[in-house]
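Dear colleagues,

As part of the handover before I leave the project, I'm documenting each prediction I ran so the next person doesn't have to rerun anything. This entry is a single chain, and its sequence is reproduced below.
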Amino acid sequence: MKRQAVIKETLSGMRWMLLQKCTQQPVALLYAMVLSRHVSAAEMGLLGLTAVFFTAATSLQHAGIGSVLVRRQRYSNADLNTMFWFNLGMGGLLAGGIVLAAPGVAAFFSLPELELLAQAAALIVFLSCAASVHISFYTSRRQFRIPALVCTGSTLAGLPVCLLLAQQGWGIWAYMVQGIVGAVLTLFVFFLLCPWKPALHFSGESLHKLGGMGCRLASTGMLDTLYIHTRAFFIGKFYSASGLGVYKNGAQLAAMLPTILCYMLDQVTFPVLSTLRNTPGKMRTLYRRYMRAFTLGIAWVCIFTAVFAESLVEVVYGPGWQEAVPYLQILSLSYATWHLQILNLNLLKAGGPKKLFLRLEIAKKLVGTVILVAMFPISMLAICYGALATSIINLTINTCVTARVMHLPVRAQLRDFLPQFALAGVACLLPRVLVCYAPVPVSPCLHAGVGFCVSLILYPLLLGLFRSRALRELRSIWGC
């Protein structure tokens, strides 16, 4: 695959994935902004507990069993049909497990209203599993436009329903109904548009060939989903629903932009890297380019959010949510290396040993769980510091494993992303200092706005001054 073709496919995929996430994430933030001004922190905490089901559904759609087709590249109709029915069966088992476990989950958190919410969310999980193979059908062909448009349209179609029900006093159920409407529409439109239609055919040979790898890919995605929400579970159980509501708002704002960029990175880079699995040298070169290019933006976004957290919280949620500021600051920094972990996992999934990436994810989750268990008795803030420490440890593990398995030296990897972090830090801290010493009082909105503009101008100037390789590559890409 030639360099020009790789660049073209990457940019095309990025454009459509960015459209999808730039619709879904702001919609979720808009709903949180509306609720934050009309409900209590305890109710926001309940919303934080139900969010795990929506995240699980998204994970199963885009990184479920059907995603094995993306890695394989060549497959038959028998493979597609087998993966569809197998995926549907596993989705049914998972949804049934959620329904049965819902009373116990509600009793565990002493929140009776959580039972019906969890059972309703089981439907979303099942519908998402049903759409997984259709999404993989397009992604494996590197056709990102249709999945992006379908998911974006479903999100926008559910928005007026959600806002109308919220206005009528439905509270959290407005958010749940939006999820159900979006999942139904997504599945319906994929069945309507996709040239491949599922048939009543199941092949034992296809299951043997694809099932094991598909389950490992789905397990990795689900492990990541459950792990991300483990902190919310601990806070909801051992602290309070109101504390969880404050934490949730800080975490949601910290995750919004990194999630958009990392989702786009995940969906685009895996299929592109998979096409280079037979040429390890080219795969490593492309991996390093991805690492440099995405760190360029994500490092600045995360550091800016941490530095201007106080102003951002007041603008987005209102003056009554300042308790969320320290959580936003710490979690923003923890998200700064998330893209590097996703890239590493995609590299291993595309070109590494088949079982290594799942074992690696289990090991990292165990490390994170140990840190979480050690931190949660101290305070909610200690839990966030534990998340930051876990992020640094996971990055260390990823870097060392990639060096050993993919023959990519640690020093070379560090040179690819550390300079961007250093320059992004300088570009964000300088305007923060300048605004703090302004001769007149500055409103939170103006404070964040001025800091954003100054930092956005200063960052590329610093990159150019220090002759950043990532900036040169970005210029050459857009010039192609």
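DSSP finds 18 helices and no strands in the chain. The chain has two domains: 1-249, 276-480.

All the best with the project,
I.
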